[in-house]
Amino acid sequence: MVNIKDVAKLAGVAPITVSRVINHSGSVNPATRERVQRAINELHYVPNTLAQSLRSKQTHTIALLLSDITNPFWTTIARGVEDAAAEKGFHTILCNTDEDPEKEATYLNLLLQRRVDGIVIAPTTNDKLRLTALKRHQLPCVLIDRRVDGFKSDVVCGDNRGGAELLTEHLIRLGHRQIALVSGPHSISSAEERAEGYRAALRKHRIPIEESLIFRGEFKQDSGYQLVKRLLERDPRPTAIFAANNLIAVGALQALREIGLRVPEDIALVCFDDIPYASAIEPFLTVVAQPAYEMGRTAAGLLMERLAATRNIRTREVVLAPELVVRQSCGQMHHTTV
Amino acid sequence: MVNIKDVAKLAGVAPITVSRVINHSGSVNPATRERVQRAINELHYVPNTLAQSLRSKQTHTIALLLSDITNPFWTTIARGVEDAAAEKGFHTILCNTDEDPEKEATYLNLLLQRRVDGIVIAPTTNDKLRLTALKRHQLPCVLIDRRVDGFKSDVVCGDNRGGAELLTEHLIRLGHRQIALVSGPHSISSAEERAEGYRAALRKHRIPIEESLIFRGEFKQDSGYQLVKRLLERDPRPTAIFAANNLIAVGALQALREIGLRVPEDIALVCFDDIPYASAIEPFLTVVAQPAYEMGRTAAGLLMERLAATRNIRTREVVLAPELVVRQSCGQMHHTTV
DNA sequence: TTGTACGCGTTATCAT
DNA sequence: ATGATAACGCGTACAA
Question: Which class for B208: exposed (0-12), middle (13-18), buried (19 or more C-beta within 10 A)?
């Protein structure tokens, strides 16, 4: 494969001059640049990023670890990260952890090997163990959507507690008292915070908190399906369900449909995070939508500030307000920002 | 950052011996291996992939170029590609072209620079121009979901013509005669083939083809929305709509909802490619679903066979049969394989 | 403005 | 089973 030397030879210059042309660095005589450029075109020369990075110790690459590339909430975040990174000349590597700590650990190792410049991660658990390797190798890191106990780093997330409270109050205001919560694992901070918001809303309205109405599983469709099936056997049956994320809600819809219950006529259903294409497909589902794209942009922004900085920066925390999207019936829609 | 020499020094061996240990290549005395491994752990050594690839001329990386990472059809393909690649020890880089030929060209260039070992691509147009650079650099390539005129390479796609015919016949069998088609651009082979299938079905049943019922736009939600809005103004109004992909169908639903038309009571709607979480959310939409995950796996498989081969392989074409998923009402479901 | 010498971290090749 | 040497393709540091 043709390399920088070949180009240099053809252009009658030293390799370093070619380097200066392709990197727009140093100063090159316009006439020389022209000759070099012609040689590049003639030989179809493509610079080798591997060698560039090896030498310069910068890959201009960041990584994004998220739990499910099939869930539009995460891919919207991914787009935000990608766009912000691309604007600064950085490429983004996407990694699917599937909520599996082992996969996460494997990817982190892979990324260290690839010498990425930084990482944006939605950790699978709030255990900082797997992240210590990053600290050791001084790899800049931004947490997105989820916190990790005792791990010092930048964080970008939504107001989970506030959003959950808002959503629960919405149900209460509609007259519901038997509100079931279907949330994610205890080891994920967002699941915890959303559960807290739920409890806070009930307390605020002096509704007794019944532990038998609180279900904890995974942030997955199947988990939502299974838990809602169990939940519907309860006597008395809850009149409303609060799904702590969109996939749980989809699983819930599936379970309700099987039982033959309609939303919202027979039972209310609300959820955290918008459902893909919900406005077109399922107009009856009130949700708290997070500004996913902005979250991604913000996280990448913080990361790249850190990469550009010459000295250490204090760690920062950005909490973005979610939006309550009330969908009552066709055409009627009401937005409120928290 | 600690490198292979540091490890070698601590273990009292030559760097190449460390190399043999980390790559499980050559043969190493168990005792030596043990000493090396201990040194690796002690120093927290992480091999530098850049240097490895530079020297070995293999990145163990393939790229997947697709049009929209937010569309679960594509991300499901992505999962198939990733999984198959990972099984062979390859990493996958995902690139979003957004159906934009310029973005595609930019990514192709980036990937050449990164010296990826091969590419799976859903091209944005059927113009082979942008792909010639791959040929020139002898970069193995597999087309997925879409063909490119005159470009010789492996291809994995669904039976677009057959699937579209099936879907159209389904509508005809339900009694529809005024069936509108909303398809994608002429420059994308799948859009063309689906339109052909539609026409073929009408011909077969001796229904006159009315050009005023055929709408061509983009494979995007907004395009579907706009075209269906226009389509509904037609007099007489079509009794059924065939959306040529899932995003067009979502846009169609949105438009129908605004007008106040219900599916399937007031107008029929079918589409190519399943709608995300459709079974849970929108149980009335009959679709032709492609085996996206399998398509991804197959494409990656062909690519990696090519990478593993020592000599040239003839180009291959795999056409996977789509599945007609008839969703008439809650709980009733009927599957037929083409 | 341009060039020389060297090193980035690793592995291919050949030798022992 | 282990090692010495060179090379992969490029950019830094310094010199001219």
Answer: exposed
